[in-house]
Amino acid sequence: MFAVAAPTAATKPEAYAELLAQARALLAGERDFTANGANLAALLFHGLDGLNWAGFYWLKGGELVLGPFQGKPACVRIGLGKGVCGTAAASRRTVVVPDVHAFPGHIACDSASRSEVVVPVLAAGRLVGVLDLDSPLPARFDEEDARGLEAIVAAFVECTDLS
Predict the structure, then answer these.
(1) Domain boundary assignment for the chain
(2) Rounded to 5 degrees, what are φ and ψ at 136?
(3) Closest CA to 116 of 48, 25, 67, 51
(4) 96-121 residue pLDDT tens
(5) Which numeric CATH code is attached to 12-159?
(6) pLDDT one-digit tens code per residue, 1-12
């Protein structure tokens, strides 16, 4: 059994360093795509304050399809370039949205969500999917969150068979 410990660090970079260490320990010795995605979604959901959704969408057949997640039921399919997830996937760049209601074309899977961060999952330059975190708090995410989550996604890619 793996115990999730909320970060105790004083700063966001330190907290993400703790989460990254937990993620590496959680993923160590397992290469399965679904198992690692499910465990990483659970780690983030329970290890970060102020989230109402954490999970993955995988690229399948030219669209994003719901993968492992924690939170309320979610939108199942998202087109590339649509909403925050589709925008991050199409641009292959992390997207931080302080106010989802001000984001053109936002897809409201949970009306309680107010802010969002989406990190592309890239393996050898190929888009595999995105990691999506939502919060009911406005401006919950910033560039420090983006950098920390990008490092965690990189560890996921390194530890997981994505083909």
Answers:
(1) 12-159
(2) -80, -5
(3) 51
(4) 999 999 998 888 888 889 999 999 99
(5) 3.30.450.40
(6) 566 666 777 899
